[in-house]
Amino acid sequence: MTPKNFQERRSFLKQATSLALASGLPTLEALTKVAHAAGGVGTTEVGADYKAIVCVFLYGGQDASNVLIPYRDSNGTGTTEYDRYRQGRANGSDPQNQTTSTGDLSYTNAQLAATSISSTGTDPGTNSVFTTHTYGRQFALHPSYAELRSLYNSGKLAVIANVGPLVAPLTRAQWYGSSATRPPLPVNLYSHDDQQKGWMSGTANVANPAVGIGGRIAANPAIAALNVGAKVSTQISIDGVNTFMLTDVGSPTTAIAYQVGTGSIGRLQTATTTPPATPTVCNTGSTFMNNNPTSPYCVTGGPIRVSNGYSWNSPLYNAFRGRINATAENVSVYHDQWRQTMNQSIQTEIDVSSAFLNSPPTEEIVAPFQTVLSVDSGNDLAKQLRMVAAMIRASNQLGATAATPVKRQIFFVSIGGFDTHGTEFWDNNPRLNGRISKAINAFWSAMGNVRIRDAAGTGYLPGSAQDRVTLLTMTDFGRTLDSNGAGSDHGWGSHHFVLGGAVQGGKIYGMNHNVSQAYIDSLTTTSKVWVSPDTTCGAVPRVGIPPDRYNSSLTAPGAKCNGLNHALDRGELLATTSGDAVMATIAKWFGVPLTTNAEIDAMFPTVRAAHPNGFDMGFLA
Fold first, then answer.
1. How do residues 494-551 score in pLDDT, each as one tens digit?
2. Phi, psi (5° rounding) for residue 69?
3. In this structure, how many other beta carbons lie within 10 angstroms of the beta carbon of residue 76?
4. Which of 71, 155, 224, 252 is the least crowded, having the fewest Cβ atoms under 10 Å away?
5. Helices 363-373, 380-394: crossing angle, 10 deg rounding
């Protein structure tokens, strides 16, 4: 009886796994001595066929209106679109003042100069689905995104515009039209819990999904076959239980997510340090680290060790391991499931800890993050991504054998605090966005220090692990453009990032937001009031506060739109790109077969309905 047979007992199992992770095994100190007695520090590499997905979830609903901001009009000098953004974010007649007391939510145009980005692309054409064309319109990233802007300019980071949970295409005319003819909507739009689950599950039409996108990818036979016999799960969460990694009944055991902590940083204590140590250990003591500033960094911990004395009491520990290693005792489903989950967790801890100690993640992994954490020790996202980097580096030791490293990994990390309804808007957003930018940049730097072993195992391939990793962001939803007097409220569409060596970056990707006159002519007279012709919009929807939809005097075509074809009452965006399309594009790169309709529907049940003309956004080579 294996964990995959009892996914319906999900709540129990998740709790059991947490208990197992905290329960017991030999100390890391003992493993350290054994590992270092066997040899020196190993190499920094991933296997030839290695690939990883890193999901960064931004809990609370990030304020998208200050993530991608209009900067210059298509003529390169005008600020008409910026002015509409600024007016929409103002709080009544308050002057533009970024303090907690004014309720003004905008940045000045001058503040955006340092993070302005160029946008490229060709004319999407009348029938194009996704595009990178912005018709010369220029945008800026959040002022705290200096590092992300550099990654964008390097061609490795792309922006995905106006994306969110979506189960069917929806126009503004349909949104405000009769509910009888309105396409289906995601479950409970504007709800934190439901939209988080919609993003993470790829089934935004299901209220309480039992399976996540990551779980389906990890369990896909093509992916599972690449990690047969691996010592660690394909999915690793550094942020506890989440919907993204839930697996279905019948999934391979290696698909079930394993949880680790952020670990601790130390410096290698060797025969030449003060004081010396033989064999070498990872010393996390502040005094030792301060006294030995030139000794290489190391990472220890991550997997949670055994407590309650097992590691110090061999008879008790051995009896415990013997019992949980036994064959099924058929006392109850919970009895055997808990025992096997416990055993799997402990064995995984041993394997991961041994990998860290046989080949400690040193300067090349730790230093980029220490640069960040030395200035802001509260950047927990940097700590989580540091563990992701360490686990990626350890992948070459966690396969079934020394000659078969782990080939596929999926990671989940997060940062919270984005539910900024009140005066925390100006406290949280600049600080949290700065942490995101610096943490992701440190992770990218660390990946650049990890080489790729060739298939023969005798040399290295060109490039680095940057070429084998794709990172993406998700959040609950975007927020309102307008101010509620202090902050912004729940919305729908948001803007996100994808980063990786295979990413065709330096571009903004999105649905073609152009609205043709032919489309408007096809509408009924009452529907035409909601939309305006616009043939120079492209990948990014125009922002602003539309006219009052309750004003009965506005009856002419476009009168209740004023050029804002994808803005709802308070300037929140009507999502046009499904988060599933983003993940499906990444899954295809990852090696998931998505050629036939049956294959697509099994992995992303609503993506064909949301994007009937194709889901591949084209941002991955």
1. 999 999 999 999 999 999 999 999 999 999 999 999 999 999 999 999 999 999 999 9
2. -120, 135
3. 9
4. 155
5. 180
